[in-house]
Design goal:
By secondary structure, the protein is of the alpha/beta class. It is 38% helix and 12% strand. A 3-stranded parallel beta sheet has the order 5-6-7. The chain has a two-stranded parallel sheet with strand order 1-2. Strands 3-4 form a two-stranded parallel ribbon. Strand 8 (160-162), helix 6 and strand 9 form a beta-alpha-beta unit. It is globular and about 45 Å long.
Length: 230
């Protein structure tokens, strides 16, 4: 789970890696015979019973630095990824991060460019709202309406959803499933773990190769497995 890929003097939420750090991570994966793919591709391989050598790479929020800094590195390594974007904030900023710093979000052209480059586009909701806090109408807007907007923008209905802030409850899972998404990504959903609440490993600037190896080893121990087709 990545977010922003840039050089910054301030990172109060630990959501940024530099392009050099991302390159180190991708080099590390490739050196071990691993290939970065979209979440949808990993799940398809999981259902087929063969995920050997595949790692899903996800980028939340849809910052413009994805196409500027991450995309060239992914293509150079022969990797793909899933980018979770906010169709209600096209070309806007990360106003939900009270401490900043402010970062630009992808507009329609940027999202299409990422899709045309082979990246999977998924929904992060409309406005980056925590789903458990919403009334029924707003919950439908964040899930179903965001999916419809992305389908109109890209010409393809998105398969994946990502819960803003990683917050999820049974009602949120049901709303995402009812909206037609094939899967959804969380962070550490515990008992809710399944196809519509997938656990992920957060990766930050402080994660060098030794920490990546440790996180990879601990992941199966800390998180429940996801059943094929579940």
């Amino acid at each position: 789970m990545y977010h922003s890929v840039t050089v910054t003097a301030a990172d109060p939420y630990n959501i940024t890696v530099t392009p050099d750090r991302l390159r180190t991570h991708l080099d590390w994966l490739r050196a071990r015979g691993l290939r970065g793919v979209s979440a949808a591709e990993l799940l398809a391989a999981h259902d087929a019973g063969d995920t050997g050598g595949l790692v899903a790479l996800t980028f939340d929020d849809g910052y413009t630095d994805f196409t500027r800094n991450a995309l060239p590195l992914l293509r150079r390594h022969g990797f793909t990824a899933t980018v979770f974007v906010l169709p209600g904030r096209l070309g806007g900023e990360n106003e939900w991060d009270e401490l900043g710093p402010r970062r630009e979000l992808l507009d329609e052209a940027g999202i299409r460019a990422a899709a045309d480059a082979g990246m999977e586009i998924g929904s992060h909701g409309l406005l980056h709202r925590a789903l458990p806090d919403l009334d029924d109408a707003t919950l439908r807007a964040e899930t179903a309406d965001s999916r419809a907007r992305l389908a109109e923008l890209t010409g393809r209905e998105p398969a994946g959803f990502c819960y803003p802030y990683g917050t999820v409850d049974e009602r949120s899972v049901a709303a995402v499933r009812d909206a037609g998404y094939a899967y959804a990504c969380a962070i550490d959903p515990g008992p809710l773990t399944g196809r519509h609440a997938l656990p992920r490993i957060h990766v930050g600037q402080s994660d060098g190769t030794a920490r990546l190896r440790l996180k990879r080893l601990l992941h199966p121990l800390r998180r429940r497995p996801v059943e094929a087709g579940a």
